[in-house]
Amino acid sequence: MTKKQVAPRGLKRGDLVVEEIKRWITDRNLTPGEKLPKEAELQEMFGVSRGTMREALKALEVQGLIRLSTGPAGGATIERVTLDRTFQFLQNYLFFQDITIGDIYALRRMLEPEMAAMAVPHLTDGDLEALARSIEISDPSEDNVHPAVMQRIEDLRFHDIFAEACPNPFLRFQCRMINRMLETMVESSLHATMDEHQSLGEAAWRAHKKILVAARKADADEVRKLMHAHIVENQRHLDLLQAGLRSRLVLDSELRLGAGLPASLGPVKPPRRQPKR
């Protein structure tokens, strides 16, 4: 790209520079942690003004592809796009779609039992201990010091432990995205009664204990079967908590940067009601 080139109608010059930098990174097979040339050198390479280059670099940072830093050793460093940033883009897209709890669980029933079964041979002793701790934290007994909402979020972290052990990265990604949506549902269910939370918690706690027993035995088929039954039962309980769910956009300030998990998620809409017969 040179200074004489004109951006096509509807596309800003800075957008063209973003595309050129992406091609430059791809052609050189650069990896996270590697630095781009200094800003002045990039201006010279792509034949653009300082303002245009800064606009392009900021756009790449917003996309999560680079990290900008100041100072003598500063500049643009290539980053691995984080799960929380990816989820933000996905969730902002879903904000304008008619997504229901039933839609989410239809996909979850297909994906998560297989994901859990695939993870079983790869679970470490540390993973099994983490699953046991998760069950302990989410124990719905009255003497549990953790709030009900925190217990329900811990229920989802139990599933994330399986996801992280799954050897298929795309399946792992899809299941973690679903769990982030469900985490929002729990966080937005503050209207629910303690009895409703208790019922959901007891069902999940019992199911997780059975799944852990099968996982310790390395019985992938049994884990698959138990996980499917658990998800079917869980949906019935979540239907009771759906009345106050709202859809909204995810803000940058709500991302747990570095932790890989969004602090607040959405959207979920109540299930479509079937017409009375």
Automatic annotation (TrEMBL):
Domain HTH gntR-type: 11-81
Pfam families per UniProt: FCD (PF07729), GntR (PF00392)
Keyword Transcription regulation: yes
Top-level division of the source organism's lineage: Bacteria
Species whose genome carries this gene: Roseateles subflavus
This protein's record includes keyword Transcription regulation: yes
Keywords noted in UniProt: DNA-binding, Transcription, Transcription regulation
Stated name of the protein: FCD domain-containing protein
